[in-house]
Amino acid sequence: MRWIPLLAAPLLLACSPSSDAAAPQSTQAAPAVHPQSGLAVVPLRVTHAGTVHTFRVEVAGTPQEQSRGLMFRTAMGADEGMIFPMTPPRGASFWMRNTVIPLDIIFVGVDGRITNIAANAVPYDETPLSSTGLVKGVLELNGGRAAQLGIAAGDRVEW
User: Fold this and answer.
1) Which of 48, 81, 111, 149 could cross-link with 141 by S-S, CB 3.0 to 4.6 Å?
2) Closest CA to 43 of 77, 83, 94
3) Local confidence band at 3 (pLDDT 50, 70, 90 cut-offs)
């Protein structure tokens, strides 16, 4: 009777330990990467009047990543954004060339506090939107999101 060994083989394989089960499990998660941009995604917190708002932001760290920014993107989640670290800190100006969605452009001073916000920047507008003073980063959120959450100049930003 040839069918008994054929039926028993899958049962034996299902019960035998796999080589993966014996391998140690890594406790460190792989860094998050945004599916569209391929940029690293990190948590970012804005503290306003004792309330902490948490976002998942893409990090545009290189000059190439920063010049592309959120150009050509058609949507972004409510608690998503992009951070542009400025190392060393400097004055910054942004525009909306090839940017499809309205954005709040939030300038983060060297002390980690918001210096100013260019709210609801108009898609495709090439008018420079500038920081007031030196910044260590610029945060972009969906247009109107800062006002919706009460985020304002003086609030602390950490990433």
Assistant:
1) 81
2) 83
3) very low
Rounded to an integer, what distance in angstroms lies between the CA atom of residue 152 and that of residue 144?
Answer: 12
* Cβ–Cβ under 8 Å, residues 105 and 138: yes
Tokens for 28?
A: 């460190």
Phi, psi (degrees; rounded to nearest 5) at 5: -65, -35
Q: What is the CA radius of gyration of the chain?
A: 23
The rounded distance, in Å, linking the Cα atoms of 127 and 4 is: 78
Q: Using one digit for the tens of pLDDT, what is the confidence trace for 8-36? A: 333 333 333 344 444 445 556 666 999 98
Mean pLDDT for 61-70 is 96
Residue 159 · residue 83 · CB < 8 Å: yes
In angstroms, the CA 95 to CA 41 distance is 23
Q: What is the assigned CATH class of domain 32-158?
A: mainly beta
d(CA 143, CA 102): 5
Q: How far apart are CA 117 and CA 132, in angstroms?
A: 9
pTM of the model as a whole = 0.81
Alpha carbons 122 and 102: distance in angstroms, whole number: 5
Report d(CA 136, CA 90) in Å as an integer: 7
